[in-house]
């Protein structure tokens, strides 16, 4: 049985944008779409019983409204809806164990103006066992529609040629192939430590060109297996003499998706995001995919 695409629903505009993107992903993959709303049970002393039932009813209405809306635009898509009594982040992380992909809005109904990423989205990105796509709400942007909406999309992959991560590259190449999008591989690099004098940070243009040529050749060699596996994907690469997060943020302008990795830590119950993924989530100008990996 093929796993569904999962999306969190909380009645917000960002959740609606996430549901729309998730529906397109599910249709493209030929799998079901599963909507999840979490209505945590609070102590009766805090919230009266009738109010708890009312909160659950509101959640059910949000789910029904989303199902109806998606049915109009994706009539052939099978849509399921479930409610959970767990806290939203915990419910999403648990349900992601039976999903191929989790899609969430960058922020939900909570938070405050200027907050880029909400606590639920951060927790899901840091702990979900499957890839997570986080969708910002910027009405009218091409990036929000997703690459499949126009067929000329660009997906950015953060890549380290010296420590390539198969799961992350697999996700990015497969996404580019499915969406008929160009894949933009970004390799941030630095001069070899031994090349920089302890008395000076001056590096000749000749040395810089030599090192850059070496990186270009190395990158082409490392990417070759994926290019052979996905011959239909047009791949472009950039070597940027920048910190990884800065390089990816520069590349995110006009992109449809930025793909980064997250080291899965089985012994760390809470999960965590590395500094690059954290910075990209907070500052990228497009949706971001966080792919867990064991490397």
Automatic annotation (TrEMBL):
PANTHER family assigned: STRESS RESPONSE PROTEIN NHAX, UNIVERSAL STRESS PROTEIN UP12
Organism of provenance: Streptomyces tuirus
Domain of life: Bacteria
Pfam families according to UniProt: Usp
Protein name per the record: Universal stress protein
Family that this chain belongs to: Belongs to the universal stress protein A family.
Span of domain UspA: 2-136, 154-292
């Amino acid at each position: 049985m093929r796993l569904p695409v999962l999306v969190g629903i909380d009645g917000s505009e960002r959740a609606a944008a996430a549901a729309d993107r998730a529906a397109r992903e599910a249709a493209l993959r030929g799998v079901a779409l599963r909507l999840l709303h979490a209505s945590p049970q609070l102590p009766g002393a805090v919230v009266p019983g009738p109010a708890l039932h009312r909160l659950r009813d509101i959640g059910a209405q949000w789910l029904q409204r989303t199902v109806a809306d998606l049915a109009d635009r994706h009539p052939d898509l099978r849509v399921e809806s479930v409610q959970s009594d767990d806290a939203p982040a915990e419910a999403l992380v648990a349900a992601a164990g039976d999903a191929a992909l989790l899609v969430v809005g960058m922020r939900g109904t909570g938070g405050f103006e200027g907050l880029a990423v909400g606590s639920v989205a951060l927790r899901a990105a840091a702990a979900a066992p499957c890839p997570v796509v986080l969708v910002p709400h910027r009405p009218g942007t091409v990036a929000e529609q997703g690459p499949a909406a126009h067929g000329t999309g660009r997906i950015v992959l953060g890549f380290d040629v010296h420590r390539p991560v198969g799961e992350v590259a697999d996700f990015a190449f497969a996404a580019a192939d499915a969406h008929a999008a160009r894949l933009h591989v970004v390799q941030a690099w630095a001069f070899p430590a031994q090349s920089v004098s302890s008395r000076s940070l001056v590096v000749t243009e000749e040395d810089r060109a030599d090192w850059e040529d070496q990186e270009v050749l190395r990158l082409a060699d490392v990417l070759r297996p994926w290019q052979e596996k996905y011959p239909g994907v047009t791949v472009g690469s950039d070597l940027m003499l920048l910190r990884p997060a800065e390089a990816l943020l520069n590349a995110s302008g006009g992109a449809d998706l930025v793909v980064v990795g997250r080291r899965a830590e089985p012994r760390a119950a809470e999960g965590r995001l590395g500094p690059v993924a954290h910075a990209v989530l907070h500052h990228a100008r497009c949706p971001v995919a966080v792919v867990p990996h064991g490397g």
